Protein: Pyruvate kinase
Amino acid sequence: MAQSLQLFTSSTTRSPSISLPKHSLSKTPSSSTAAFRLPVSFNKFSIRASSSPDLNPLSSASTSQVLVSENGSSSGGGFVSTSATTREFVPAVSDGSSIDVDTVTEAELKENGFRSTRRTKLVCTIGPVTCGFEQLEALAVGGMNVARINMCHGTREWHRMVIERVRRLNEEKGYAVAIMMDTEGSEIHMGDLGGASSAKAEDGEIWTFSVRAFDSTLPERTINVNYEGFAEDVRVGDDLLVDGGMVRFEVIEKIGPDVKCLCTDPGLLLPRANLTFWRDGHLVRERNAMLPTISSKDWLDIDFGIAEGVDFLAISFVKSAEVIKHLKSYIAARSRGSDISIIAKIESLDSLKNLEEIIVASDGAMVARGDLGAQIPLEQVPSVQQKVVQLCRRLNKPVIVASQLLESMIEYPTPTRAEVADVSEAVRQRADALMLSGESAMGQFPEKALTVLRSVSLRIEKWWRDEKRHEAMELPEVGSSYSDSILEEICNSTAKMANNLEVDAIFVYTKTGHMASLLSRCRPDCPIFAFTSTTSVRRRLNLQWGLIPFRLSFSDDMENNLNKTFMLLKARNLIKSGDLVLAVSDMLQSIQVMNVP
Ligand SMILES: Nc1ncnc2c1ncn2[C@@H]1O[C@H](COP(=O)(O)OP(=O)(O)OP(=O)(O)O)[C@@H](O)[C@H]1O
Ligand SMILES: CC(=O)C(=O)O
Structure:
């Protein structure tokens, strides 16, 4: 089907121009753009002074603080628009009340309290030290964009409680914290240490690994293993690595279901830690390769996640694209329209073998360096990380860099210099998100760890902007249709124009979030404010680099919508008088475009 597209510019002194293929463009006569043309003085409102660069305190946001007055300066802005697939306007979904589209309402201000312009997103694993409402709120205030719950640990009741608290936090305080549920996967791991929170294995100690269920008659220093074939598969002389090598044992004897091991690298044993065994310097993986990626327990957990409406499902030990496709069709059949994004965890040799097709099939990826480092030599982990980050960007999928970013902060209040350098490198690679694991789940300083991630991210992002290190990477097309190509062209050109003109912000009005995602992929210098009418789209966008997502009700009068978004952002001190803004949209029916006969 032929597509067409319109380009709008306001009649101001700094009208940006955009270069797009001639056959896809038609310049709109200004009379037909009335509904969408920016008011000449759209960017000239008086505002309050702004505060911190990352988090502005939640204002009480009374209407009087929000109202703006024009002051008559003369710079301008542009509005580039395209129509995507729908002509229907999307109504608000969150409150069902009547929609006042002329002005931003108190309810919308409250709903959109979230106001950080940090580009790198932060994921926190929630555990015993962070599951209380106040602790969750402290993490949200500290910049948590996504709360991760790990189904390896805790009961479903416990996870349900965390989900409810995060939801309440979003509703009461205006955050958009998304929930990511991480499956256990069916790799070999230890049991739960009989209720102890950890156990110390010392150098030279003998420990027994057994498939027998934990009970008090077992010898001291016995660890339960979840895999029935364990004693059969290991051989005397094998190395047994706990938690990717945090503790190491050598197998010295097999007695029926029990395997006696000598501790050769001492350390802390944590409940349900992953186990791998190595022989003659190679990972023994035949058995693991035969285990299903999604175990029967995982399927029950997935049902739980669907019922609870989680935003992301992170799937452990993905081996092929097929499992992701299978899961997606299962979710589509079960969730009746609700949209859950699938994040493939890259943490095994098999996932590396099939990397590109796995990422294409998924909605995002996680470089799960903990288990990955137990399956490939540690010195290969950094190059694999960079490869996955670049590939995800090329394929337009958000990517999370996870594990041991600030491991020492589980015990100490400051990170090591090496950890700061590691975080900086992930930010410099422009990964979408960084993830805290034990640091926020069971560490002594969860908020401090988050503060370190936040401040290092802000510092490195600013350093790279100041250095004008624009992304050099040529972005290949990811869409398969002509209309996808148009969207991509617009986003690529908008990002380029934003950098060239040094604009202050890009606004994207988006229905499904796809256009926002394409803009994020370009990693422009300025923040991207993404406006959507759907609460769940807003939360999902909160994982992606540079996107600051808001939910608002819209009319099909673009001028109203623009004014409304200016009001909101001014109220949140995110834009100010004289700022230059580029706006693009994939959701507004009236920005239509005709098929050339
Ligand atoms: N819900 C929870 N309840 C209790 N402890 C938890 C919980 N979630 C995490 N933890 C603790 O925090 C540690 C780090 O969390 P993390 O989610 O990284 O687990 P993990 O066991 O390393 O699994 P994975 O390999 O999937 O990351 C865990 O080993 C566990 O001790
Ligand atoms: C996060 C995770 O699962 C890992 O690093 O192994």
